[in-house]
């Protein structure tokens, strides 16, 4: 009798546990877009750039000339962003900035400021669907459409020289940029990838090891950058913070190794760089690394019809890093307040 009661108890516990696991997996399956994409960071009060603290609300607060842009996607959504431009924009390179995951585009102004003043480039940054004032809700397929619409907007803009187009993708934006470059690489001078991941599948393994056991049946978001990067032929610069607490630094290293068909590729690693402050920890050297890459990629594009061009520029180099010594690298020209103003 005791054994039967014990078996019955164990059976009930197993049923309850099985039901709980099944329900949890169903919730993950249905809600994973909401789990991955985080437009409201640190909370819903900061959904829109104008709700941010001062100097994070628009580029004008940091003395950058800009225009507000609205871009229509192929599925009829409107995306909102900024074209931040130099005095004579056609004579400068333009960087299309595919932004990180959490938060609106105003959260990126501290890093954009460094690119704008130190490199004297134009920057086009537009919120993905569901981020800031952009319509819709984020999905993998949707962000792919967003990337294409943003890129086409740049090609058509009368103040953007489409012979001087670069793209930069940070974190999630790296995956967005890679899938775009695979389709549009003939029109891109070069691509910069910072603290991005190999795939969502591998990030699940890293962050949610228990869920990883069931990912084959519940996963609906993929972003398979590690499979796409071998198809990229444009010049590539990989930037990695060696103390990245979100994306393991090995992901950037593996993407670098897998990019076997790039015209040339470079790696810049920042000692002490974390997921969101690699640019700051690198300091001036971070800027120099990007400037060196842009100069070489621009020269490569100008001479790519020369049959000897590719062989003269193929480079599997790891660039030396002088940044990350102490609390930060050599100072950028414009000091930036990194206090946590979003608490």
UniProtKB/TrEMBL annotation:
Residues 123-220 form the Serine aminopeptidase S33 domain. InterPro entries: AB_hydrolase_fold, Hydrolase_4. It comes from the Eukaryota. One of its GO terms (molecular function) is palmitoyl-(protein) hydrolase activity. GO terms for cellular component: membrane. The chain crosses the membrane at residues 6-31. Residues 305-322 have a biased composition (Low complexity). The keyword Membrane applies. The keyword Chloroplast does not apply. Residues 304-343 are annotated as: Disordered. Keywords: Membrane, Transmembrane, Transmembrane helix. SUPFAM superfamilies: alpha/beta-Hydrolases. It holds the Pfam family Hydrolase_4. This is Serine aminopeptidase S33 domain-containing protein. It comes from Stylonychia lemnae.
């Amino acid at each position: 009798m005791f054994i039967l009661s014990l078996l019955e108890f164990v059976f009930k516990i197993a049923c309850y546990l099985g039901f709980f696991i099944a329900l949890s997996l169903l919730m993950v399956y249905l809600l994973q877009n909401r789990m991955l994409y985080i437009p409201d960071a640190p909370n819903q009060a900061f959904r829109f750039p104008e709700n941010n603290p001062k100097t994070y609300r628009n580029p004008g607060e940091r003395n950058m000339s800009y225009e507000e842009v609205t871009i229509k996607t192929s599925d009829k959504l409107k995306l909102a962003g900024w074209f931040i431009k130099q005095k004579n924009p056609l004579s400068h390179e333009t960087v299309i900035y595919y932004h990180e995951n959490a938060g609106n585009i105003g959260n990126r102004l501290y890093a954009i400021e460094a690119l704008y003043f130190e490199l004297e480039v134009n920057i086009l940054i537009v919120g993905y669907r569901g981020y800031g004032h952009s319509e819709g809700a984020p999905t993998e397929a949707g962000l792919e459409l967003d990337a294409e619409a943003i890129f086409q907007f740049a090609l058509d803009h009368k103040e953007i020289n489409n012979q001087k187009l670069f793209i930069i993708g940070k974190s999630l934006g790296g995956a967005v940029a890679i899938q775009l470059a695979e389709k549009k690489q003939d029109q891109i001078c070069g691509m910069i990838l910072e603290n991005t991941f190999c795939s969502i599948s591998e990030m699940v393994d890293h962050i949610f090891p228990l869920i990883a056991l069931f990912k084959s049946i519940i996963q609906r978001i993929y972003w398979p950058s590690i499979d796409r990067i071998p198809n990229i032929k444009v010049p590539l610069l990989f930037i990695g913070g060696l103390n990245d607490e979100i994306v393991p630094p090995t992901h950037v290293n593996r993407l670098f190794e897998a990019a076997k068909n790039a015209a040339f590729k470079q790696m810049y690693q920042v000692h002490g760089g974390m997921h969101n402050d690699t640019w700051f920890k690198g300091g001036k050297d971070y800027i120099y690394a990007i400037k060196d890459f842009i100069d070489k990629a621009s020269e490569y594009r100008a001479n790519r019809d020369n049959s000897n061009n590719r062989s003269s520029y193929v480079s599997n180099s790891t660039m030396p890093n002088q940044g990350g010594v102490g609390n930060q690298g050599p100072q950028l020209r414009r000091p930036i307040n990194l206090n946590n103003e979003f608490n």
